[in-house]
Amino acid sequence: NQYQQMPDLARGIEKAYHINEKMKVLFIVILLVSFARNALAFSPADHHTRQFQAGSWSLASTGTTKPTAAPADSVIVLEDANSVGEAIREIVSKAAHRAIESRNHFALAIPGGSILKMLAGSITDKDSWTSKTTLFYVNHKCVSMDDSELATHAKARKLFLDDWEGVNAIIMDGTADGDAEAKAYEEKIRDLSDQVLPKAIESNLPVFDLCLIGVGDDGHVGSLYPGRDEVLVGSDGPWVLPVKMKEPPSITLSLPLMKAAKEVVIAACGVSEKYPKGKSDAMRRAISDENETLQSFPAAGLRDVATWVMDEAAASALGDKYTN
């Protein structure tokens, strides 16, 4: 029955019987090895990977099954959401001063969501560095940049960005074409000088001075969602990816690009009637659950590089190691 399902192998074995006895065994072994190689080369998993690949870059081969790094060490637990917001603004200010002192420019990447509200608070010395700042979006929906409901850029402008005098925000073209927007945004990043956005020597990835990131209840960071291949893209892949999970689609920085930043800071805080303990379970899974993988909980892929800043509610499931 197996031979009927593998006609090429069957014909080869049949031919082997017409060869002298000394060559039969060797010939059959060669056929079996050849068949095994072909079967592996066209396995369903590999075929799926090839469908996702757009060039010579690769997906992380162990991202679906291999646990992520050991539990995070750099965790800051503060009293409440206001304290977290103040800490994030102070982190931004200090990172700006360090970068400007080093090369006279500051490269900042921000997400949407609650971090926008944190940045809306008072930063006493911002006028000394905003004119030397280039701002990037970790992720953004493919919509018009003035869409007040869906555009992170429009929300950022309303909350704080219009008060950051002289800041250069790298924005999208405002179309609904995810592929084109991802490609165009990456080109805009590539066109920047090394003074504005340095590159890592080994990986040649852009190095933001600071990358702020939020975490969804399902573990998504940027628009890297669980159960999808975008989170597996390696450092040799695109810097900016289209994500066609919803309509309109989104673009997102790749995980290696997020991790390449000099400083990666994840913020989580706030409670509600629906979530009286805030994002406590999400923080537990992201920071300390050793069974999580990139695809089961993408945020866990940042635990080896990020500083995690959260309120007591978000930290409530982490245990004494962190809360004390």
Topology, element by element:
Blueprint: H1 2-5, H2 7-16, H3 21-41, H4 44-52, E1 75-78, H5 81-103, E2 106-110, H6 114-119, E3 133-137, E4 139-141, H7 152-159, E5 168-169, H8 178-190, E6 210-213, E7 240-243, E8 250-253, H9 255-259, E9 264-268, H10 280-287, E10 306-311, H11 320-323
Parallel strand pairs: 1-10, 2-3, 2-6, 3-5, 6-9, 9-10
Antiparallel strand pairs: 4-8, 7-8
Helix pairs in contact: 2-3
The geometry reads as globular
Count of individual beta strands: 10
The H-and-E topology, N to C, reads as HHHHEHEHEEHEHEEEHEHEH
What's the overall average pLDDT, rounded?
Answer: 85
- Report low-confidence residues grouped into runs of 5 or more: 1-11, 35-54
Strand content: 5-15%
N/C terminus separation: 64 Å
Helix coverage percent:
25-40%
| Order of strands, widest sheet | 1-10-9-6-2-3-5
Major sheet attributes: 7 strands, parallel
Structural class: alpha/beta
Please give the radius of gyration in angstroms: 25 Å
Query: What's the number of helices?
Result: 11
Task: Give the key terms.
seven-stranded parallel sheet; disordered N terminus; 11 helices; globular; 324 residues; alpha/beta
